[in-house]
Amino acid sequence: MLFPQLYVPGQQNLYFNKTVFVKCMLQGIYSSLILFFIPYGAMYNTMRSDGKAIADYQSFALMAQTCLLIVVSVQIGLDTSYWTVVNQFFIWGSLSVYFAITFTMYSDGMYLIFTASFPFIGTARNTLSQPNVWLAIFLSITLCVLPVVGFRFLKAQLKPTPSDKIKEAKKRPPPPSPKRRLRRTSTRRSGYAFSHQHGFGALIMSGRNMRPKSPFATTGTFSPNSDKHKHKGL
């Protein structure tokens, strides 16, 4: 109700149209190329610190899916405007659950229980314990997220949306209210105020005070003694 202009982009399909779909498709292709070739280049003809080979299909798949999940989690974090306990639990909790499941699937216990289903024993701890693997993961995250952050920053500065304008307006401090001088009111009343009250002018101009009183005014009948009393008074 306070910001009705926020509904205009949705009514005009500015957030879901052919142009937005093409942009999302191009971003997906770019991210797919990064998430494939960066881990591939990091795994190609690579040796571990103990001299053993690490360039195998399962290690490459583990590294690629780790990069993918972290990039998606960081992207969701960038798209989140209001953080709550539920958001924190599902975003960062999903990463914790992923690593817990990954290390469990490639553990010795799962191999002993389900030998045919989990033959790649020790792949997770051998791959994720290498510094060059984490360097490649960090590089993949940076190359996938940095263009998105840069594009959104330039768009907010050059062509802000109604939401960006409202967020920027809320960040600004409110202008200081002008100071008003308090006028002291006196409780004393001057004679000028009384001179403007209703006086006896209306009564004088009406002539009611000049009319003689009728002897019938009080009793409604004529009393002969009334004139006697007047003469005695005179």
TrEMBL record:
Q: State where it is primarily located.
A: membrane
Looking up Pfam families in the UniProt record yields: PhoLip_ATPase_C
* Bias (Polar residues): 216-225
The residues that cross the membrane are 20-42, 54-76, 82-103, 134-154
UniProt keywords, alphabetically: Magnesium, Membrane, Metal-binding, Transmembrane, Transmembrane helix
Q: Which GO terms describe its biological process?
A: Golgi organization; phospholipid translocation
- Comp. bias regions, Basic residues: 168-187
Keyword field contains GTP-binding? no
Name the GO cellular-component terms. Answer: plasma membrane; trans-Golgi network
Domain P-type ATPase C-terminal: from-to ranges = 2-161
| Localization per record | Membrane
Question: What topology does the record note for this protein and the membrane?
Answer: Multi-pass membrane protein
* Region: Disordered, residue numbers: 164-190, 213-234
Molecular function terms, GO-annotated = ATPase-coupled intramembrane lipid transporter activity; metal ion binding
The answer on whether this UniProt entry bears the keyword ATP-binding reads no
Q: What is this protein called?
A: P-type ATPase C-terminal domain-containing protein
